[in-house]
UniProtKB/TrEMBL annotation:
It catalyses: L-arginine + H2O = urea + L-ornithine. Binds 2 manganese ions per subunit. GO terms for cellular component: cytoplasm. One of its GO terms (biological process) is arginine metabolic process. InterPro entries: Arginase, Ureohydrolase, Ureohydrolase_dom_sf, Ureohydrolase_Mn_BS. It comes from Halolamina salifodinae. Mn(2+) binds at residues 113, 135, 137, 139, 238, 240. This is Arginase.
Amino acid sequence: MIENGSGEESRRSVRLIGAPTDYGQDRRGVDMGPSAIRYGGLSDGLANAGVDTQDAGDLLVPRAEERDPEYRTPSEGKARFLRETEDVCGRLSNEVQQSLADGHTPLVLGGDHSIAIGSVAGAAAEADIGAIWFDAHADLNTPTTTPSGNVHGMPLAALLGVDEWAGVDWANAPSLSRENVAIVGLRSVDDDERELLRESEISAYTMSEIDRRGLANVVEEALAVAGNGAEGYHVSLDLDWLDPTIAPGVGTPVRGGVNYREAHHAMEQVAEDGGLRSMEMVEVNPTLDQHNETAELAVELAASAFGKRIL
């Protein structure tokens, strides 16, 4: 529930936006993620959370096989399908901006994590925002540090203008600063990303820290970081944040993630905090899943993030 101008509570309205891309990684099938999540009962799940849902459908995304995957940047590095990613993220940013202007909370369904460039840039276009990255990975590579060239490992670096991403107008989020970014659940970080995290103001919480301090304490701190001086925050939920025993349908699984109850509790904390401005769920790959259980879990977590409770 949200408060309207008269001080009364009204139902939150969520607009679903599908971004069926697999440009950002090299395992096919993640482009079917939006369909799998919808099939998992997303509209009903959100309705049970007391949310009105409007489905804007999917962005039109040409098939990767029809495109040239290699595109070298002006720097020495490379980023695969960068032109295509720019096109999708530009259109997605516009959709997110329009959703907010229409009074809807955008819920973007991926697709691979490269789409975060578009969803966060759109959410940050007219407001100073923070961001919480629930992810096993830091997503802070650049075209010169990436081991793979896959943009799904770069979106946070792009949004923050790290190194050669600086000044790339379609990728940088205009009002997102490092001191308002928290990454929760890290357990797979590349060397260059590790160095950046040690030197920057980004708040990074590993699974080891979660084990020591407890997830609730870490998420509470992350929410404070993202919301400090901001006009709300974006939640980026990569399903590989969860342990692959409960979320097998992801392209880059990493053992040792959060469990079922921890994930729900974190999303419940997001709902209770009340600062959610926009959200995305990414990296659901039904070709790697078992009986659509990862997509159905994504539905459950979205419902928790938007306020579903047992009592």
